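User:
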Amino acid sequence: MTIKSNNVLASSPSPSVAVSLEPPRNRRLYQVWKGNNKFLFGGRVVFGQDASSLFLTSFLIGGPAITFCIRMMLIIKDEDTTFNHLVLIGGSILTIWNFMFLFMTSGRDPGIIPRNTHLPESEESFCTNTSSMEWVNNKTPNLKLPRVKDVIVNGHTVKVKFCDTCLLYRPPRASHCSICNNCVQKFDHHCPWVGQCIGSRNYPFFILFISSSTLLCIYVFSFSWVNLLRQQGRLWSSMSRDALSVALIVYCFIAVWFVGGLTVFHLYLISTNQTTYENFRYRYDKKENPYTKGIMENFKELSCSKIPKTMINFREWVAEEEDIQDESFASDLEKGFISSKQKFDMDMGVYGKDGMRVPGILQDLDYNGIEDLKKKKPGANDTSFDIFVPSDQDLKFSQWKSKIEVNDQDVKK
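Assistant: Predicted structure:
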């Protein structure tokens, strides 16, 4: 890896760091956003990674709905009555509403939390010898942050976790979506049918979408039966003559179990002030929910509260940094001598001579070199290692960087 400065190349002391001395280019934030979102209209519309699933969802909704409206127009052609016109208008309005709520759910920022570009500073002092504490110890060995923090919410202790990707402590009820690669406020779930995360800013529209889908299924199912029953002759003969209405009845009967069941489930979540993520992960029915305010207040909170403003302006101009290392700041425990699938609990292991628990993965390490250092005579020129003091390598890098700046000034002259 090299450093380029006015056509002067200098080798970098670190193979993982590259510094560009050229001025960065200005681009819109959505053009350099590190999440997996897809943007339209210059960053004004925000979709999830699997936004293409909207085509399938639109077909599953629009296909039977438009077919029903066409069937009603054919009936009006033979029997022009006010009742048939009202049924057609009602079906058309429900279909338009359903599509409107679908795209308002899918094309909206669900409550994405801005990323940090650097690790946050430690706000508290923690004992680094605590064996039960998992630390966020990444590229900066002089900074240690606890993996989990305790915060008080409505008199209850709630744990908030550090996100290695976004470099922040997630607010209460927030979570990181692995599909869209974003931390989302009041994360409910990632819905593949709308191709978007469901969070604090689009959850009300999601409820309206699944509710209107349920009503549309019931509407088409009911009036398709009415069309069959109004025909002359026996029911079986009417069904054989009007196969289109029969197909709509069967389709809506199957679909209503899915969208209707989903609607009922989310009404239960609203009444208890839970998210889908919390319901499956924490099971508040077994312990007290710190967020519930009672059934009526919970529904009032959803229906009467203002939608939070977006925390990110995807159209703002930002400086694009070139050739800068771009990777997730996973902890050294995950990126060093073990993989992410081999995480271990620091509380596990056997007891050492000092009475402290030693993780199994550290039991086979050779500590003879460390013991030899301890046995050195006083006054010997030994090198001390302190996590809060820059190492010799860091000092050499600072001296090297100063030389590069001086050479750069000479070139400009």
